[in-house]
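User: Fold this, then the next.

Assistant: Folding the first:
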Amino acid sequence: MTEVTIYHNPDCGTSRNTLALIRNAGIEPTVIEYLKTPPDRATLQSLLEQMNMTPRELLREKGTPYAELKLGESHWTDEDLIDQMLKFPILINRPIVITERGANLCRPSEAVLDLLPLPQQGAFAKEDGERVVDEKGQRVKAP
């Protein structure tokens, strides 16, 4: 059985497109709506390690309290930034996908194709109409 987990925000188009690409491969993933069920510190640190990212690289600015908290300033340590992401989960960029092939922040959404253990089962276009996968299940353009 193929296990795939997505840290998902249903209000985010990129996250919705990523989830749809996973399902287009015939996989029903474990969906964690991380704003409703935020990761704990150990999980967030594990995700960062798996993705080989720093907390700063995972911070989301748009639509978050990033500017208000002045998180762009250099005095914030990694631990401080993790504290802020735990306090305000909207600061965690998304979608994060974990498969047997690894974990990654899937921006753009087609980055998920490199993580999926099964091929696409048919054509796929993003919500904005951009074709990502053709009728034969092949990637139309690489990220």
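Now the next one, as you asked:
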Amino acid sequence: MIAPLPDPLAVTPFAGPVRGGVGLPGSKSITNRAMLLAALCDGPVRITGALFSDDTEIMAEALRRLGFAVDEDEGAREIRVVGRGGEVPATDADLFTGLAGTAARFLTALCASSRRGVYRIDGVPQMRKRPMGGLIDALRALGADIRCLGTEDHLPVEIHAAGLRGGPVEIDARESSQMLSALLMVAPLAGEAVAARPAAGVRMPFVRMTLRQMGQFGLVDPGRGGADGEIVVAPAAYRSPTSYAVEPDATAASYFAALPLVVGGTLRLDGLRPAGDSLQGDVGFLEVLARCGAAVASEGGATTVSFAPGGRPSGVTQDFSGFSDTFLTLAAIAPLFDRPTRIDGIGHTRRQETDRVSGMAGELRRLGQEVIESEDALEIRPAPLRHGVTVQSHGDHRFAMSFGILGCRDVRGDGKPWLSIADPSCCAKTFPGFFDLLGELRGKSSGT
């Protein structure tokens, strides 16, 4: 059990360079996709190395409400889902998605693909503001009867399912590639091939992850290319892989990968695969750390990040559009860099758990930094850090974890906390044990 965290949480700096290794939780993105794909298979699937967090529990509970057998063993990090060959067992269900965008979009597509049934899907007030319109429009174009019960193109929705007919369809997934991923995963259940034509500007790394996972769940030719950038998915049956292993979460890894830049030392990230060997586009963040001056090496099933104690990382200019969940990690530690850092390609993150662009700019300014904010970018100009600040997490797990890493720097040189995090428990959304794991590493750094 994870002990409750004080609110606000004062972050104790590291007494020395980081050392040792860290085991990471399973990928949220892969776990939730794996659960959905397993439900579409023709038998039981054992998902190993799975993430257990608020977001994955929301997905698991929703699948149960839809009539699927889902058994969880958190101690073993395993989830067992019994697929029903493309059928949704329940014909009437109310589903609650909290603030989980993956669950909201994936479940909307799953329910729309059912041959029969009435399904109501809702979330917390902030989830009702998050983009859904591109997916809803595309599913309607394929024959789905989706009724918005509040604001058009947002949750809550009521779906009167009668299956999807297939055919050509345009989808605007620029605000979230999850909408395109959701459509593609249920496309094999349609009456004929789905030829999805994404709007220009869709961020493709997570879409490529989705297509690769569809192949791992038995589709022979998932998402072959068509004319004018179409992604064509033919009718087919998913096949249970019996056992499916989830990679460690590359986004969660970004926080610990950045830690050597903050406190110096060497940290081994167990199980983290390099680019080219990972399903996750967010491993691209490792290349950014290398440009900042870190030594990054992958060997023996682990990735190691090193940085000289007492050194100053280099500021960079980087387009984060392909791995935008990690931009907050870099932005939070940019005050420690030797020159300004510019982060581009992040305008779409204004419509995630919170407005991440303005939120990050505001918190950095409260810490004494000069920040230039535009619609799609932030430029952070390092200045002395202000002490005694409580950083607001905005109910967003990535704020809490990113600034938790910054707080590990012994800015005053006395080993005492100089930065606190409000609502640190919001990390439970994707990484419930984050601050416990950080504390273990802190103990190793001081030799205790």
